[in-house]
Amino acid sequence: MPTLTSEIASVTATLSLGAGWWWYAAMWPESQIFGPVLLAGNDPDQIALTFDDGPNDTATPMLLDVLARHGISATFFVIGKYVQQQPGLVRQLVEAGHIVGNHTMNHPQLVTQPAAVVRKELADCNAAIEDATGAPIRFFRPPYGARRPVVLRAARELGLTPVLWNVSGADWNPDGVEAILENIDFGIARNRRRKRGSNILLHDGGHLHMGTRRLDTVRAVDRLVAAHRGTGTEFVTLDAWAT
């Protein structure tokens, strides 16, 4: 006959499993439990560079120069309040052939926000980008990768495809260029074993303030692209994988 202690242990274990399942569904980048999100295509030689938290008046212009020098395009998920501060920089991204996506207006943790706040964050960011560029917005990346069904539903109601990632440079840590490249190389190698393309998460800004230093990211991108020159690797933007 079960004792009170064993019943409490059973309930605790069940709650822990439930919490773990919810965390995985909401936070793990490759999870599709709460709904489909775009990760990558099935060509292991394709790589997409994606940058979050810009535009940033220090790092974004340097990245524009690096990408132009290598002749490749990338996807930039921008924060609406920074778009309003640097509309000309966002126009430069579009004019250079890069994709600009929605990263919310203020970079909140969306899994804790009411549905009305979620929709407003996405709609206001869309409006800021459209005011700056006149270009349509197709893609949305939730801050921290955090989502729940209401977040994905709001995105699709606004015509946005939710995007996560399957490689992270972990460049928010001050570990230097070599660490960023090691993280990226590890992720690309894993995806190639899985016969998948690589959608690389990097940052050209920081959500706390304009002017975040991302020089290590800029240098890592320069070296990454140079290292893959002549190897058969194709650098693509997200529209190559969107259906």
Label the CATH architecture of the largest domain: Alpha-Beta Barrel
Largest sheet descriptor: 6 strands, parallel
Oligomer: single chain
Terminal-residue CA separation: 56 Å
What spatial form do the alpha-carbon principal axes imply? globular
Low-confidence stretches: 6-17
The average pLDDT value, as a whole number, equals 92
Beta-strand level of the residues, as a percent range?
A: 5-15%
Structural class of the secondary elements? alpha/beta
CATH superfamily descriptor of the largest domain: Glycoside hydrolase/deacetylase
H-E order? HEHEHHEHEHEEHEHE
Helix tally?
Answer: 8
Identify the CATH class of the largest domain. Answer: Alpha Beta
CATH topology of the largest domain: TIM Barrel
Q: What is the number of beta strands?
A: 8
Helix content: 40-55%
Number of spatially distinct domains: 2
Pick out its properties.
243 residues, alpha/beta, TIM Barrel, two-stranded parallel ribbon, 8 helices, 13% strand, globular
Describe this structure in words.
The chain has 243 residues and is an alpha/beta fold. It has 2 domains: 33 residues; 203 residues, Glycoside hydrolase/deacetylase (TIM Barrel). Helices cover 45% and strands 13% of the residues. The chain is built from 8 helices and 8 strands. Strands 1, 2, 3, 6, 7 and 8 form a 6-stranded parallel sheet that branches. It has a two-stranded parallel ribbon with strand order 4-5. Helix 7 crosses helix 8. The protein starts with a helix and ends in a 7-residue tail after the last strand.
